[in-house]
Design brief:
The chain is an alpha/beta fold and 269 residues long. The chain has 2 domains: 125 residues, no CATH class; 100 residues, no CATH class. It contains 11 helices and 9 strands. A 4-stranded mixed β-sheet has the order 1-2-4-3. It has a 3-stranded antiparallel β-sheet with strand order 7-8-9, with no helix packed on it. A hairpin with a 4-residue loop joins β8 and β9. The longest helix has 15 residues.
């Protein structure tokens, strides 16, 4: 990953409209990340998803044609880095309640939309493409995260934090990271008895002190100016947020360092 500019494009989109094909894609993804199995095995995450139907939704023929045309147009708005480094991406239409209605990715190259109308958002599409990129080039991203001050944290959270930690399909393979050896962001369900997918607080745990805070630590707030609180849960989310809407973060020191590391083609098309 670097700064070399080129007109080359390897990226393409395939909208999966047949339910049986989409089911097969999900099954393949599940065999890799075990995400839904992990959610079902965890009490809080299972409760939070009890009204969520995680299965393919149908696409009418006229809708498919309209969305395929939308994707053709969007392709030209995707940063060069993504168009060079990625190839075929499967787009799945899920039931509206899947994952609380939030777009997300599954391995190795799948973007899931519980609401296909959100394809109209270029920033959302770019955000999800960066998650695909992060999986495909995971070791390179680990080095980038390290240079930004992040390292994967394999320690144990206090029971109260781990018990109510919300799982995320984009980060399920490496959910916990520590910033500058001090802060571990943890997305925690607001309600311990009735957890909801869209009701999550961000807590910051410090292993050295054995305590957590519920406001953004000053070190993070200064480095990542303008970042929404929910983005702090994982460096994958942080970088996907910043690279998908770069004009919001031009005054962030971490963003400018990120662009140097990933290359200017990561924010230009």
């Amino acid at each position: 990953m670097g700064n070399t500019a080129t007109s080359q494009s390897n990226l393409s989109f395939k909208l999966i409209d047949e339910k049986h094909d989409a089911t097969d894609v999900i099954a393949t993804a599940e065999s890799i990340d075990l995400y839904m199995g992990e959610c079902l095995d965890d009490k809080s995450n299972s409760l939070a998803r009890q009204e969520c139907i995680y299965s393919p939704n149908g696409i009418a023929r006229y809708e498919k044609e309209a969305y395929e045309e939308m994707l053709r147009v969007k392709l030209q708005q995707i940063p060069q880095r993504l168009r060079i480094d990625l190839s075929e991406i499967f787009i799945l239409n899920l039931m509206p309640s899947a994952e609380g209605g939030m777009p997300h990715t599954r391995p190795p190259n799948v973007i899931c939309y519980p609401d296909l109308s959100r394809l109209s958002s270029t920033s959302t599409l770019i955000h999800e493409l960066w998650h695909v990129h992060q999986r495909k080039y995971s070791e390179k991203w680990r080095q980038i995260f390290k240079q930004l001050g992040w390292e994967e944290w394999l320690g144990e959270l206090p029971g109260g934090l781990e018990k109510y930690r919300r799982y995320n399909p984009d980060t399920i393979d490496c959910p916990l990271w520590i910033y500058r050896g001090k802060w571990v962001p943890v997305p925690v369900f607001q309600s311990v008895t009735q957890p909801k997918m869209g009701e999550v607080n961000m807590w910051f745990y410090t292993p050295n002190g054995g305590y957590h805070v519920t406001s953004t630590p000053s070190e993070l707030a200064l480095a990542y100016r303008g970042l929404p609180l929910t983005a702090y849960e994982n460096p994958r989310e942080i970088t996907a947020y910043m690279l998908s809407e770069p004009t919001k973060y031009v005054y962030s020191s971490a963003f400018n360092e990120l662009v140097k590391l990933v290359g200017h083609t990561s924010v230009s098309h």
